[in-house]
Amino acid sequence: MAGLVRRRARRQAVLRWVVVGVLSFVFLLPLFALLEFTTRGPGDTLTWDTWRLLVDWPALEETYPVLWTGMKASFWLVLLSVALTLVLLVPTVVWVRLRLPRLRRLVEFLCLLPLTIPAIVLVVGLAPVYAWVVYFVGGSSVTLFLAYTILALPFAYRAIDTGLSAIDVRTLAEAARSLGAGWLTVMWRVVLPNIRSAVLSAAFLTVALVLGEFTIASLLNRDNLQVAINQLGKSSATISFAVSLAALVLAFVLLYLLSFVGRRRRRERSVP
């Protein structure tokens, strides 16, 4: 019986590595093709001029102003979208769990609703809103963070809600309140440290979403990284593919880091 169990475990391990190897090949092959194309020089020689240009920001701004504008816009969109998403969701979800548990399903429904609405339909609804935004604030691409916050709500809500489900937030809050802590102290010094990994997960997912969004920015005639890549693809395919590869790798790294966020903290808790 023990030999049968070992053989079955060995077959499962082999199958698991085969599946991982095939999926890795399918995923990495297009990335290697992109890298090879961006490093191909005249006469099929190897050159890293495109990648050197990407890290030489003054030269990049002068050579490809459209790309530089899109990168700056995406940088501010990432910061503002992450900040607004966390400021809206974390206190709301915690307060609903503590004081308004009957509204939990309603809040969950509202947060997950953007998943069911195609981006093109969102643009139709957001266009009149952004007409007023342009009138009062101006037509800056940074104002897209309002729309991106809506897009990020389902992913950020699920991450934060999962983190709160892993702790007894009601007991922690009541214990802190019985010791004289105010609600701001409870939120900042009691709840947040216990859901730090969930908050970081929500932030990483929001960053990945903002860096990859194209439809809304394009249809609302705004600039971001993906719109700049699309425009450069019509005139300079090499730099366009290089930026696309860099954005893909960055998004992959962020999502890969999600598997490690909070792992050290869990190990520390398990140590007696």
Written account of the structure:
It is a single chain. This protein is mostly helical and 272 residues long. It folds into 2 domains: 4-40; 66-262, MetI-like fold (Orthogonal Bundle). The protein is 79% helix and 0% strand. The protein is built from 14 helices and no strands. The protein has helices at 2-38, 49-55, 57-63, 65-99, 104-112, 119-136, 145-165, 169-178, 183-194, 196-212, 215-219, 225-232, 237-257, 263-270. The longest helix has 37 residues, at 2-38. The protein is globular and about 75 Å long. 26% of the residues are buried.
Rg over CA atoms, rounded to whole Å, is 23 Å
**What is the overall number of helices?**
14
Gross morphology: globular
In sequence order, what are the helices and strands, one letter per element? HHHHHHHHHHHHHH
Distance between the termini: 36 Å
- CATH fold call of the largest domain: MetI-like fold
Percentage of residues in helical conformation? over 70%
CATH class of the largest domain reads Mainly Alpha
Number of domains: 2
Q: What's the count of strands? A: 0
How much strand content do the residues show? under 5%
By secondary-structure content and strand pairing, the structural class works out as: mainly alpha
Mind describing the biggest β-sheet? none
